[in-house]
Amino acid sequence: MINELKKQFLEIFGGTDDGIRVFASPGRVNLIGEHTDYNGGFVFPAALTMATTIIARPREDSVVRMKATDLDGIVEGDLNTIDKYKDLKWGNYQFGIFDELRKAGYNICGADMLFHDTTPHGGGLSSSAAIEVSAAIAMASLGGAKDIDNIEMAKISQLAEHNYIGVNCGIMDQFASAMGKKNHVIFLNCKTLDYKLVPIQLDGYKLVISNTNKKRSLADSKYNERRSECEKGLELLKAELPDKTCLGDISAEEFDGAKHLITDEVIRNRVMHVISEDDRVLRSVDVLQKGDLKAFGELMTASHESLRDLYEVSCTELDTLVESALKLDSVLGSRMTGAGFGGCTVSLVKEDGVDEFIEKVGKEYLDKIGYAASFYITEIGDGGREIK
Ligand code: GLA
Fold it and tell me: In terms of pTM, does the model score above 0.90?
């Protein structure tokens, strides 16, 4: 594939392969711990083998030319007018990254870049984090940085989302993309960024991702709204828990003692989700390490119910996929993954039931929703890197 991409690169941008370098960073699937990251809580994502690959070559000037293999046309911009590209339909993430790299003191340079994405766009599998982190590693490297610090690349990518794109996302997606490891799940404390790579053993089971293929709308504004609801909840709880700096600091018992402070039911539900989800992550890591897949499946399903009923970020399409999945004996658990309002679910399915799963869930979804879902069997891959 890389050779084919290099060939395409030369056809598009001309010149020789002198100075060409290759970078990649993956999408992610979050196994559990949703909407906890920006609350300083725990998450448990894994990097996918679906990724963004970039073929890149530095230029002598300050011009960046970018092309995606699945889009027509070349996007061109100048690093001296980096603020001008916020409204690009494609390419805005990259300019956001270049901007943050420069602010962080990295040398950046003009470049020609070809992007090839295999993570489905807008599917809740962090195709944008894959673009961001790969672009960050590529540009920092072309600019001369050695020994790239992937955690710093994740942080820079998150800042680009906040400052350039306008989504107040947490650190999970970019961290998972940058720091993933083949066949491991990342247990991450989003407050301290302490993390542990947990090897995953799913004896006889597969994690199946089901994509609603729903066109998402208003997801960004609702995402920011949820975030501020959590902030309101924290402010109210501080009246009795003054030392807490985020919801992730608050245990279920502490919340029980203080929840009367939140009289608004919606805000209370949002906080209840975050506190209980955090606890589910801890329990999931524990049961998975013991090989108790049944217990993990139950936690996945409980997570979905909480996201649906308390956090209200699910939708008919996601609920349909989860409900159809749970009808099958081969399924131990199923939940939406990512921000919600569309995107994907992840289900723990017995290996010999996967074909039936895809057939039955696919049919029920098509009958009810009117268009088809897509299915992928999760393969856990490596995080962001240069490919030599
Ligand atoms: C999106 C955000 C993440 C995280 C999830 C929800 O993927 O980018 O930071 O908040 O939603 O868990």
Answer: yes
